[in-house]
Amino acid sequence: MTVNVALGHVSNAFLIAALVIYSLSVVAFAGDFAFGRPRRAAAAAHGQARDRAAALASVGAASAAGAAGATADQAPPPPPATATATAGGEPADDAGTMPDLAVPALRAIREAGRWVVAAVAFAAFGAAAHTTAVITRGLAVHRAPWGNMYEFVTALTCVAAIFFLFAMIRYRAWTLGVFVMGAVVVTLGLAETLIYTAPGDLVPALQSYWLDIHVTAMTLATGIFFVPAVLGFVYLWVDRYTRRVAAGQAAPGNGIVRRLPSIEQLDRLTYRTIVFGFPVWTFGVIAGAIWADQAWGRYWGWDPVETWAFITWVLYAAFLHARATAGWRGRRAHYVQLLGFASLIFNILVVQVFIAGMHSYSGVS
What we know:
Elements: H1 5-35, H2 41-46, H3 57-60, H4 64-68, H5 105-112, H6 114-141, H7 149-171, H8 177-194, H9 210-246, H10 255-259, H11 263-296, H12 304-326, H13 331-354
Helix pairs in contact: 1-6, 1-8, 5-6, 6-7, 7-8, 7-9, 9-11, 9-13, 11-12, 12-13
């Protein structure tokens, strides 16, 4: 079918609008860091402090016995329920940055302050514009809108933004928005300026219904893995600051660290996010093997892209296995999951672009 060029321009306009709106959300999240004040009304009304670590209890809190047996490389045990400790060892505000999950989502957003209300609203409108851009791109080319590198990146950043928006509201993680949405803005901006590809037909090798199955799964998984990768960098930064304070090499009370979730919360949220994305990635690899058998007569041929997809799977599997059996919670676990994401990005940006193989369909010259 003929490509609808006009609808392709509409898609690009929505994508640019999403980029602008996302940028405004990042500014609002930064404004919350600079000018927002934690709410104390709920804590005062109930006469009790909120333990920030308990905000992710539904995600899977560590037991006291498990925390007591943590090694030097593992995250320190959570603070007592009577006060929330910051990375600098000082008590934080009772309200914390991730308040009681029993509070309805809309009420929690309002209580977080005007900066958070504006940031969440901008992020939601940006995600809506981004989703519209992806859908109209698909309508313009009459197929799934991830047939080349540009379309893949725009789609995965859309998944990342929507997934984080849900997680942020679910766990009241407002202060993480500046980091995750900032990364989405940078990635989407680079895609729009460096690898933009006009709407066009697929190469013959990709003209299969398996594109809707295999590549969709890989797009969803990559977008989900995008979020814990950013959280992993935040975790390592907070963990480094914590250790420097403990060693007397840094002054306690860093304003940014005080507003962030605790390293225990970051660790648990990262873990459960990867648990959610790993089965999707596994399904994508299996679907790719089935497609390869139908297209090339073999399930696995150690093509460069296949090989690095398998390496990525092994690294994330190692992360999950280590957490389940060895009880890793801390720097070592985050190094493994970041290595897995680095393998994934290497596969996308290097292997598919610069290494010749049977998956060289990036559309980037």
